[in-house]
Design a protein that fits this description.
The complex is a heterodimer of chains A (161) and B (266). Chain A has 5 helices and 5 strands; from the N terminus they run ββαβββαααα. Chain A has 161 residues and is α+β, with helices and mostly antiparallel strands. Chain A has 2 domains: 76 residues, Beta-grasp domain (Ubiquitin-like (UB roll)), CATH 3.10.20.30; 75 residues, [2Fe-2S]-binding domain (DNA polymerase, domain 1), CATH 1.10.150. Chain A has a 5-stranded mixed β-sheet with strand order 2-1-5-3-4, sandwiched between helices. In chain A, helix 2 runs antiparallel to helix 5 and helix 3 packs across helix 5. Chain B folds into 2 domains: 46 residues, Uridine Diphospho-n-acetylenolpyruvylglucosamine Reductase, domain 2, CATH 3.30.43.10; 209 residues, Uridine Diphospho-n-acetylenolpyruvylglucosamine Reductase, domain 3 (2-Layer Sandwich). The radius of gyration of chain B is 18 Å and the shape is globular. In chain B, 33% of the residues lie in helices and 23% in strands. The N and C termini of chain B lie far apart (45 Å). In chain B, the strands form 3 sheets. A 5-stranded antiparallel β-sheet of chain B has the order 4-5-8-6-7. Classes of the chains: A alpha+beta (161), B alpha+beta (266). At the A-B interface, strand 4 and helix 3 of A face strand 1, helix 2 and helix 6 of B.
Chain lengths: 161, 266
Protein backbone atom coordinates (compact mmCIF):
# COMPACT_ATOMS: atom_id res chain seq x y z
CA UNK A 1 0.00 0.00 0.00
CA UNK A 2 1.08 3.56 -0.65
CA UNK A 3 -0.40 6.93 0.05
CA UNK A 4 -1.05 8.84 -3.15
CA UNK A 5 -1.54 12.58 -2.78
CA UNK A 6 -3.00 14.54 -5.64
CA UNK A 7 -5.40 17.31 -6.48
CA UNK A 8 -8.65 16.18 -8.08
CA UNK A 9 -11.04 18.78 -9.44
CA UNK A 10 -9.37 21.44 -7.35
CA UNK A 11 -9.50 19.50 -4.09
CA UNK A 12 -6.41 18.04 -2.40
CA UNK A 13 -6.87 14.34 -1.60
CA UNK A 14 -4.71 11.62 -0.07
CA UNK A 15 -5.68 8.03 -0.75
CA UNK A 16 -4.19 4.73 0.47
CA UNK A 17 -4.10 2.35 -2.47
CA UNK A 18 -2.32 -0.82 -3.51
CA UNK A 19 0.65 0.00 -5.73
CA UNK A 20 -0.98 -1.83 -8.65
CA UNK A 21 -4.04 0.46 -8.55
CA UNK A 22 -4.73 2.27 -11.79
CA UNK A 23 -5.56 5.96 -11.72
CA UNK A 24 -9.05 5.26 -13.06
CA UNK A 25 -9.76 2.94 -10.12
CA UNK A 26 -8.48 5.48 -7.63
CA UNK A 27 -10.94 7.97 -9.12
CA UNK A 28 -13.90 5.61 -9.38
CA UNK A 29 -13.53 3.26 -6.42
CA UNK A 30 -11.81 5.43 -3.84
CA UNK A 31 -13.15 8.91 -4.67
CA UNK A 32 -16.52 7.76 -6.08
CA UNK A 33 -15.98 9.84 -9.19
CA UNK A 34 -17.70 7.37 -11.48
CA UNK A 35 -18.11 9.74 -14.41
CA UNK A 36 -14.77 8.49 -15.75
CA UNK A 37 -15.49 5.16 -17.40
CA UNK A 38 -13.59 1.98 -18.07
CA UNK A 39 -14.50 0.85 -21.57
CA UNK A 40 -11.96 -1.42 -23.20
CA UNK A 41 -9.33 -1.47 -20.44
CA UNK A 42 -6.73 -1.82 -23.23
CA UNK A 43 -5.86 1.87 -23.87
CA UNK A 44 -7.83 2.04 -27.08
CA UNK A 45 -11.33 3.36 -26.41
CA UNK A 46 -10.64 6.57 -24.46
CA UNK A 47 -13.69 6.33 -22.15
CA UNK A 48 -11.27 6.81 -19.23
CA UNK A 49 -9.65 10.05 -20.44
CA UNK A 50 -8.99 12.67 -17.74
CA UNK A 51 -6.73 15.69 -17.67
CA UNK A 52 -3.49 15.40 -15.74
CA UNK A 53 -1.51 18.61 -15.39
CA UNK A 54 -3.39 19.97 -18.37
CA UNK A 55 -2.91 16.98 -20.67
CA UNK A 56 -5.59 14.48 -21.70
CA UNK A 57 -4.42 11.02 -20.66
CA UNK A 58 -5.93 7.55 -20.46
CA UNK A 59 -6.43 6.94 -16.75
CA UNK A 60 -6.67 3.17 -17.29
CA UNK A 61 -3.09 3.21 -18.55
CA UNK A 62 -1.49 4.93 -15.59
CA UNK A 63 -0.74 3.71 -12.11
CA UNK A 64 -2.25 5.85 -9.41
CA UNK A 65 1.29 6.37 -8.09
CA UNK A 66 2.30 8.03 -11.35
CA UNK A 67 -0.27 10.73 -10.59
CA UNK A 68 1.18 11.47 -7.16
CA UNK A 69 1.56 15.23 -6.87
CA UNK A 70 -0.42 15.85 -10.04
CA UNK A 71 -3.43 18.01 -10.73
CA UNK A 72 -6.21 15.86 -12.17
CA UNK A 73 -9.47 17.06 -13.68
CA UNK A 74 -12.30 14.64 -14.40
CA UNK A 75 -15.64 15.08 -16.16
CA UNK A 76 -17.13 16.01 -12.77
CA UNK A 77 -14.77 18.98 -12.50
CA UNK A 78 -15.42 20.97 -15.65
CA UNK A 79 -18.86 22.53 -15.12
CA UNK A 80 -19.16 25.73 -13.09
CA UNK A 81 -21.89 24.79 -10.65
CA UNK A 82 -25.05 24.33 -12.72
CA UNK A 83 -23.49 25.90 -15.78
CA UNK A 84 -22.21 23.24 -18.14
CA UNK A 85 -18.77 23.56 -19.67
CA UNK A 86 -19.16 24.84 -23.27
CA UNK A 87 -18.08 21.40 -24.52
CA UNK A 88 -20.79 19.69 -22.45
CA UNK A 89 -23.38 22.21 -23.64
CA UNK A 90 -22.35 21.68 -27.26
CA UNK A 91 -22.64 17.90 -26.91
CA UNK A 92 -26.17 18.34 -25.56
CA UNK A 93 -27.23 20.86 -28.18
CA UNK A 94 -25.81 18.86 -31.09
CA UNK A 95 -27.04 15.48 -29.86
CA UNK A 96 -23.41 14.37 -29.58
CA UNK A 97 -24.26 11.30 -27.56
CA UNK A 98 -26.62 8.38 -27.57
CA UNK A 99 -25.89 5.83 -24.84
CA UNK A 100 -23.41 8.24 -23.24
CA UNK A 101 -20.80 5.68 -22.25
CA UNK A 102 -17.95 7.22 -24.26
CA UNK A 103 -19.08 10.79 -23.59
CA UNK A 104 -16.94 11.67 -20.55
CA UNK A 105 -13.78 10.61 -22.37
CA UNK A 106 -14.92 12.25 -25.60
CA UNK A 107 -15.49 15.54 -23.79
CA UNK A 108 -12.17 15.46 -21.94
CA UNK A 109 -10.29 14.65 -25.16
CA UNK A 110 -12.26 17.25 -27.09
CA UNK A 111 -11.45 20.02 -24.61
CA UNK A 112 -7.77 19.11 -24.95
CA UNK A 113 -8.05 19.24 -28.76
CA UNK A 114 -9.64 22.70 -28.67
CA UNK A 115 -7.04 23.94 -26.20
CA UNK A 116 -4.23 22.73 -28.44
CA UNK A 117 -5.63 24.04 -31.71
CA UNK A 118 -7.49 27.13 -30.59
CA UNK A 119 -9.56 28.56 -33.42
CA UNK A 120 -7.69 26.61 -36.10
CA UNK A 121 -9.94 23.56 -35.87
CA UNK A 122 -11.55 22.00 -38.91
CA UNK A 123 -13.54 18.83 -39.33
CA UNK A 124 -10.62 16.75 -40.61
CA UNK A 125 -8.47 17.72 -37.62
CA UNK A 126 -11.22 16.87 -35.14
CA UNK A 127 -11.81 13.48 -36.74
CA UNK A 128 -8.09 12.73 -36.81
CA UNK A 129 -7.47 13.82 -33.24
CA UNK A 130 -10.42 11.86 -31.87
CA UNK A 131 -8.85 8.63 -33.07
CA UNK A 132 -8.12 7.59 -29.48
CA UNK A 133 -11.80 7.76 -28.53
CA UNK A 134 -14.22 5.14 -29.73
CA UNK A 135 -18.00 5.58 -29.94
CA UNK A 136 -20.21 2.64 -30.88
CA UNK A 137 -23.50 4.57 -31.25
CA UNK A 138 -23.27 7.85 -33.05
CA UNK A 139 -21.11 7.28 -36.08
CA UNK A 140 -19.18 10.32 -34.78
CA UNK A 141 -21.09 12.79 -36.97
CA UNK A 142 -22.72 14.74 -34.17
CA UNK A 143 -19.69 14.41 -31.92
CA UNK A 144 -17.56 16.17 -34.53
CA UNK A 145 -20.27 18.81 -34.95
CA UNK A 146 -20.36 19.34 -31.19
CA UNK A 147 -16.58 19.74 -30.92
CA UNK A 148 -16.52 22.31 -33.72
CA UNK A 149 -19.44 24.15 -32.14
CA UNK A 150 -17.73 24.12 -28.74
CA UNK A 151 -14.47 25.38 -30.25
CA UNK A 152 -16.35 28.53 -31.24
CA UNK A 153 -18.03 28.85 -27.85
CA UNK A 154 -14.77 28.33 -25.96
CA UNK A 155 -13.13 31.06 -28.03
CA UNK A 156 -15.97 33.44 -27.20
CA UNK A 157 -15.83 32.46 -23.51
CA UNK A 158 -12.08 33.01 -23.45
CA UNK A 159 -12.42 36.42 -25.12
CA UNK A 160 -15.02 37.42 -22.53
CA UNK A 161 -12.77 36.53 -19.58
CA UNK B 1 -2.68 -6.94 -12.62
CA UNK B 2 -0.52 -8.88 -10.16
CA UNK B 3 0.84 -7.17 -7.07
CA UNK B 4 3.86 -4.98 -7.58
CA UNK B 5 5.76 -2.29 -5.74
CA UNK B 6 5.84 1.15 -7.34
CA UNK B 7 8.91 3.35 -6.96
CA UNK B 8 9.39 6.81 -8.36
CA UNK B 9 13.06 7.45 -9.04
CA UNK B 10 14.38 10.98 -8.87
CA UNK B 11 17.67 10.29 -10.65
CA UNK B 12 19.13 7.74 -13.05
CA UNK B 13 21.48 6.48 -10.33
CA UNK B 14 18.62 6.00 -7.91
CA UNK B 15 16.64 4.13 -10.58
CA UNK B 16 19.59 1.82 -11.23
CA UNK B 17 20.03 1.07 -7.55
CA UNK B 18 16.29 0.43 -7.05
CA UNK B 19 16.42 -1.95 -9.99
CA UNK B 20 19.33 -3.85 -8.47
CA UNK B 21 17.40 -4.31 -5.22
CA UNK B 22 14.23 -5.68 -6.84
CA UNK B 23 14.03 -9.40 -7.52
CA UNK B 24 12.37 -8.95 -10.90
CA UNK B 25 12.18 -5.23 -11.39
CA UNK B 26 11.12 -3.38 -14.54
CA UNK B 27 11.57 0.22 -15.58
CA UNK B 28 8.44 2.21 -16.34
CA UNK B 29 8.73 5.12 -18.75
CA UNK B 30 5.41 6.30 -20.24
CA UNK B 31 3.80 2.96 -19.47
CA UNK B 32 1.81 2.80 -22.69
CA UNK B 33 3.08 -0.72 -23.38
CA UNK B 34 4.22 -2.05 -20.01
CA UNK B 35 0.99 -1.27 -18.15
CA UNK B 36 -1.31 -2.94 -20.73
CA UNK B 37 0.99 -5.98 -20.66
CA UNK B 38 0.87 -6.05 -16.85
CA UNK B 39 -2.93 -5.71 -16.93
CA UNK B 40 -3.10 -8.78 -19.13
CA UNK B 41 -0.87 -10.56 -16.61
CA UNK B 42 1.70 -11.20 -19.30
CA UNK B 43 4.27 -9.41 -17.14
CA UNK B 44 4.51 -9.53 -13.37
CA UNK B 45 7.42 -7.38 -12.23
CA UNK B 46 8.16 -7.44 -8.50
CA UNK B 47 8.99 -3.74 -8.66
CA UNK B 48 8.11 -1.02 -11.12
CA UNK B 49 10.62 1.82 -11.24
CA UNK B 50 9.17 4.98 -12.71
CA UNK B 51 11.64 6.96 -14.84
CA UNK B 52 9.03 9.42 -16.03
CA UNK B 53 9.76 12.21 -13.56
CA UNK B 54 13.56 12.19 -13.73
CA UNK B 55 14.44 15.72 -14.81
CA UNK B 56 17.76 14.78 -16.40
CA UNK B 57 15.85 12.44 -18.75
CA UNK B 58 13.53 15.05 -20.23
CA UNK B 59 14.34 17.55 -22.95
CA UNK B 60 15.25 18.18 -26.57
CA UNK B 61 18.47 19.90 -27.62
CA UNK B 62 20.11 20.71 -30.92
CA UNK B 63 23.79 21.48 -31.13
CA UNK B 64 25.77 21.64 -34.33
CA UNK B 65 24.74 18.73 -36.48
CA UNK B 66 23.10 16.69 -33.73
CA UNK B 67 19.59 16.58 -32.34
CA UNK B 68 19.45 14.98 -28.92
CA UNK B 69 16.24 13.74 -27.39
CA UNK B 70 16.38 12.68 -23.77
CA UNK B 71 14.84 9.31 -23.07
CA UNK B 72 11.75 10.20 -21.04
CA UNK B 73 10.61 12.93 -23.44
CA UNK B 74 7.03 12.20 -24.53
CA UNK B 75 6.11 11.86 -28.20
CA UNK B 76 3.89 14.95 -28.00
CA UNK B 77 6.85 17.10 -26.96
CA UNK B 78 8.95 15.82 -29.87
CA UNK B 79 6.10 16.28 -32.35
CA UNK B 80 5.56 19.89 -31.31
CA UNK B 81 9.14 20.95 -30.52
CA UNK B 82 10.38 23.81 -32.69
CA UNK B 83 13.93 22.55 -32.14
CA UNK B 84 13.07 19.06 -33.41
CA UNK B 85 10.94 20.36 -36.29
CA UNK B 86 13.75 22.63 -37.44
CA UNK B 87 16.56 20.07 -37.13
CA UNK B 88 14.83 16.92 -38.41
CA UNK B 89 11.25 17.61 -39.51
CA UNK B 90 10.72 13.96 -40.50
CA UNK B 91 11.44 12.88 -36.92
CA UNK B 92 8.93 15.34 -35.43
CA UNK B 93 6.41 14.18 -38.03
CA UNK B 94 7.04 10.54 -37.10
CA UNK B 95 6.38 11.36 -33.44
CA UNK B 96 3.07 12.98 -34.40
CA UNK B 97 1.89 9.68 -35.93
CA UNK B 98 2.44 7.46 -32.89
CA UNK B 99 -0.73 6.08 -31.28
CA UNK B 100 -3.32 8.74 -30.49
CA UNK B 101 -3.05 12.12 -28.70
CA UNK B 102 -3.49 10.67 -25.20
CA UNK B 103 -0.84 8.03 -25.86
CA UNK B 104 1.55 10.66 -27.28
CA UNK B 105 1.33 12.65 -24.03
CA UNK B 106 2.60 9.65 -22.06
CA UNK B 107 4.70 7.44 -24.35
CA UNK B 108 8.43 8.18 -24.55
CA UNK B 109 11.23 7.64 -27.04
CA UNK B 110 13.30 5.68 -24.53
CA UNK B 111 10.39 3.39 -23.75
CA UNK B 112 9.73 2.80 -27.43
CA UNK B 113 13.36 1.92 -28.15
CA UNK B 114 13.77 -0.26 -25.05
CA UNK B 115 10.64 -2.21 -25.96
CA UNK B 116 11.52 -2.46 -29.68
CA UNK B 117 8.07 -3.48 -30.85
CA UNK B 118 8.40 -4.74 -34.44
CA UNK B 119 5.76 -2.22 -35.54
CA UNK B 120 6.91 0.81 -33.52
CA UNK B 121 7.85 4.03 -35.31
CA UNK B 122 10.98 5.29 -33.53
CA UNK B 123 13.16 2.28 -34.38
CA UNK B 124 12.82 3.17 -38.08
CA UNK B 125 14.11 6.72 -37.57
CA UNK B 126 16.81 5.61 -35.15
CA UNK B 127 18.21 3.04 -37.56
CA UNK B 128 17.82 5.10 -40.75
CA UNK B 129 19.41 8.19 -39.25
CA UNK B 130 22.23 6.17 -37.70
CA UNK B 131 21.48 7.53 -34.25
CA UNK B 132 23.50 6.85 -31.11
CA UNK B 133 21.76 5.47 -28.05
CA UNK B 134 23.30 6.58 -24.81
CA UNK B 135 22.66 4.59 -21.64
CA UNK B 136 23.77 4.93 -18.03
CA UNK B 137 26.64 2.59 -18.92
CA UNK B 138 27.77 3.22 -22.52
CA UNK B 139 26.83 4.44 -25.97
CA UNK B 140 25.45 2.06 -28.57
CA UNK B 141 25.28 2.71 -32.32
CA UNK B 142 21.84 2.09 -33.83
CA UNK B 143 23.41 -0.50 -36.14
CA UNK B 144 24.39 -2.56 -33.08
CA UNK B 145 21.30 -1.89 -30.99
CA UNK B 146 18.32 -3.69 -32.57
CA UNK B 147 18.51 -7.45 -32.03
CA UNK B 148 15.17 -8.69 -33.37
CA UNK B 149 11.61 -8.91 -32.09
CA UNK B 150 11.32 -7.03 -28.77
CA UNK B 151 15.03 -7.51 -28.18
CA UNK B 152 17.87 -5.03 -28.00
CA UNK B 153 21.51 -4.72 -26.98
CA UNK B 154 20.42 -3.37 -23.59
CA UNK B 155 21.57 -5.40 -20.63
CA UNK B 156 19.44 -6.11 -17.61
CA UNK B 157 19.13 -2.94 -15.57
CA UNK B 158 20.60 -0.69 -18.26
CA UNK B 159 18.74 2.61 -18.74
CA UNK B 160 18.58 4.59 -21.98
CA UNK B 161 19.32 8.20 -21.10
CA UNK B 162 19.20 9.90 -24.49
CA UNK B 163 19.23 9.37 -28.24
CA UNK B 164 21.39 11.53 -30.50
CA UNK B 165 20.38 11.87 -34.13
CA UNK B 166 22.83 13.24 -36.69
CA UNK B 167 20.98 15.93 -38.65
CA UNK B 168 20.64 14.55 -42.20
CA UNK B 169 20.77 16.41 -45.51
CA UNK B 170 17.28 15.09 -46.19
CA UNK B 171 14.92 12.68 -44.52
CA UNK B 172 11.33 11.53 -44.83
CA UNK B 173 8.95 9.10 -43.17
CA UNK B 174 5.79 7.47 -44.46
CA UNK B 175 3.63 5.00 -42.61
CA UNK B 176 0.65 2.88 -43.48
CA UNK B 177 -0.98 2.70 -40.03
CA UNK B 178 -3.12 -0.10 -38.72
CA UNK B 179 -6.48 1.69 -38.65
CA UNK B 180 -7.24 0.80 -35.02
CA UNK B 181 -3.93 0.67 -33.19
CA UNK B 182 -2.01 3.18 -35.38
CA UNK B 183 1.01 0.90 -35.20
CA UNK B 184 2.80 0.63 -38.53
CA UNK B 185 1.51 -2.07 -40.85
CA UNK B 186 4.63 -0.84 -42.55
CA UNK B 187 6.54 2.40 -42.11
CA UNK B 188 9.65 3.46 -43.98
CA UNK B 189 12.16 6.13 -42.98
CA UNK B 190 14.56 7.33 -45.69
CA UNK B 191 17.62 9.47 -44.99
CA UNK B 192 20.41 11.05 -46.95
CA UNK B 193 23.24 11.84 -44.54
CA UNK B 194 25.32 14.96 -44.88
CA UNK B 195 28.18 12.79 -46.12
CA UNK B 196 25.94 11.46 -48.91
CA UNK B 197 25.20 8.03 -47.48
CA UNK B 198 21.69 6.71 -48.09
CA UNK B 199 20.04 4.80 -45.25
CA UNK B 200 16.55 3.31 -45.39
CA UNK B 201 14.83 1.47 -42.54
CA UNK B 202 11.45 -0.25 -42.49
CA UNK B 203 9.33 -1.04 -39.45
CA UNK B 204 6.23 -3.22 -39.18
CA UNK B 205 7.37 -5.36 -42.09
CA UNK B 206 9.93 -7.90 -40.90
CA UNK B 207 9.52 -10.81 -38.52
CA UNK B 208 12.77 -9.69 -36.89
CA UNK B 209 11.73 -6.11 -36.24
CA UNK B 210 13.13 -2.97 -37.81
CA UNK B 211 15.39 -3.60 -40.83
CA UNK B 212 17.56 -1.76 -43.31
CA UNK B 213 16.46 -2.10 -46.95
CA UNK B 214 19.66 -2.35 -49.01
CA UNK B 215 17.90 -2.68 -52.40
CA UNK B 216 16.10 0.62 -51.92
CA UNK B 217 19.24 2.26 -50.54
CA UNK B 218 21.13 1.26 -53.73
CA UNK B 219 18.35 2.55 -55.97
CA UNK B 220 18.22 5.89 -54.13
CA UNK B 221 22.00 6.17 -54.17
CA UNK B 222 21.87 6.08 -57.97
CA UNK B 223 18.89 8.40 -58.19
CA UNK B 224 17.16 10.10 -55.22
CA UNK B 225 13.60 10.04 -56.50
CA UNK B 226 10.43 8.02 -55.88
CA UNK B 227 10.56 6.60 -59.41
CA UNK B 228 14.00 5.10 -58.75
CA UNK B 229 12.23 2.59 -56.49
CA UNK B 230 9.77 1.45 -59.21
CA UNK B 231 12.02 -1.34 -60.42
CA UNK B 232 13.16 -2.53 -56.98
CA UNK B 233 11.88 -5.91 -55.95
CA UNK B 234 11.41 -6.65 -52.22
CA UNK B 235 11.34 -10.29 -51.20
CA UNK B 236 8.42 -11.36 -49.01
CA UNK B 237 10.58 -13.95 -47.32
CA UNK B 238 10.95 -13.24 -43.59
CA UNK B 239 8.22 -10.59 -43.62
CA UNK B 240 5.28 -10.59 -41.22
CA UNK B 241 2.04 -12.15 -42.35
CA UNK B 242 -1.17 -11.87 -40.33
CA UNK B 243 -4.87 -11.10 -40.68
CA UNK B 244 -4.02 -7.46 -41.41
CA UNK B 245 -1.73 -8.11 -44.33
CA UNK B 246 0.17 -10.93 -46.01
CA UNK B 247 3.94 -10.86 -46.40
CA UNK B 248 3.52 -10.09 -50.13
CA UNK B 249 1.30 -7.14 -49.24
CA UNK B 250 3.87 -5.85 -46.76
CA UNK B 251 6.69 -6.32 -49.29
CA UNK B 252 4.80 -4.04 -51.63
CA UNK B 253 4.09 -1.60 -48.81
CA UNK B 254 7.83 -1.29 -48.15
CA UNK B 255 8.25 0.02 -51.71
CA UNK B 256 5.22 2.27 -51.68
CA UNK B 257 6.01 3.76 -48.26
CA UNK B 258 9.64 4.31 -49.33
CA UNK B 259 8.42 6.18 -52.41
CA UNK B 260 6.10 8.35 -50.32
CA UNK B 261 8.87 9.00 -47.81
CA UNK B 262 11.24 10.14 -50.57
CA UNK B 263 8.54 12.35 -52.06
CA UNK B 264 7.97 13.92 -48.62
CA UNK B 265 11.65 14.19 -47.68
CA UNK B 266 12.93 17.58 -46.62
Amino acid sequence: MSKVKLTVNGKAVAVDVEDRTLLVHLLRDHLNLTGTHVGCDTSQCGACVVHMDGRAVKSCTMLAGQADGANVTTIEGIAKGDELHPMQAAFRDNHGLQCGYCTPGMIMSAIDIVQRHGGQLDEATVRHELEGNICRCTGYHNIVKAVLDAAGRMKVAQAAE
Amino acid sequence: MYQTIYHRASSVDEAASLFAKGSEAKFLAGGQTLLPVMKQRLAAPSDVIDLGKIKELIGIEASGDTLTIKAATPHYDVATSDTAKKAIPALAYLASLIGDPAVRYRGTIGGSLANNDPAADYPAATLALGATIKTNKRTIAADDYFKGLFSTALEDGEIITQVSFPVPAKAGYAKFPHPASRFALTGVFVAQTKSGEIRVAATGASQSGVMRVPAIEAALKANWSPSAIDSVSISASGLLSDIHGSSDYRANLVKVMAQRAVAAAA
